[in-house]
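REVIEWER CHECKLIST
Item 1: Sequence provided? yes
Item 2: Single chain? yes
Item 3: Sequence as submitted:
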Amino acid sequence: LNSEFRYLVTEARKIPHVREIIDRCNLTVLTEPGQEDLAQFLAENEVKVVASLPCYSAKNVNQQRGKGVFDRSIQALRTLNSLGYGKQQQQHGSSSSSSLTLDLVYNPLGAFLPPPQDALEEKYKEELMQTFGIEFNNLYTITNMPIKRFADFLFRRNELEEYMSLLVNNFNPGTVGGLMCTNTINVSWDGTVYDCDFNQQLALGAGSYVPDGMEGKGLYAKIGGENGKCVSVFDFDSALELLHTEIVVDSHCFGCTAGMGSS
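Item 4: Structure as written out by the authors:
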């Protein structure tokens, strides 16, 4: 956990026009030594929690994340529920969600696409409630991206080409309008801007690809107008300037556009 995480949250909460703060995390961080009060801190600052839980069974989670991770995840979910996260409130015969949102994220255990999101969310809610008494708001399914450790894993098994073919052959143009790179940016600790968090992992900075005819124009002029140069938050006064830069794409982007999409 970043040592300045709590400072970033409390300072962001002081900004009047900040509508939502999201903590994208692994549930086990809430059980780490010294972080026992982290869930309380998140609740006090009304931080939306989006947490990974790759399955509702201990066997599958421990197989993917390591021994004991599932039990710690369940412990964390119960703590969040006890603070009001993910709870349905009964009011005058109708139910409404708590202001403390708890969303879960599923990704497949192997080189295949996730199942339909709505049906899997229903199954997650049924299993977690019946077995552990746990509630949450929404489930998001995410395709495993062919980058970093997962790409290395597939390469060692000689399955990377087959997986890429699966993603390409299941390209769904209907997913493009909802891609995170079309309405969201990622900012690293040093101010470098990325079109998405996957590009950040691959060090593909925003503005690092200059389309023909755009050299010396807009933000490209500010960063030198050369391929490989990246945009920083110190290069612009408004994020709206990024609307005139080309989104940086590569083969891994098929992971967000395959099947039902995962962005």
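Item 5: Key structural point noted by reviewer: The chain has ten helices and eight strands.
Item 6: Recommendation: ____
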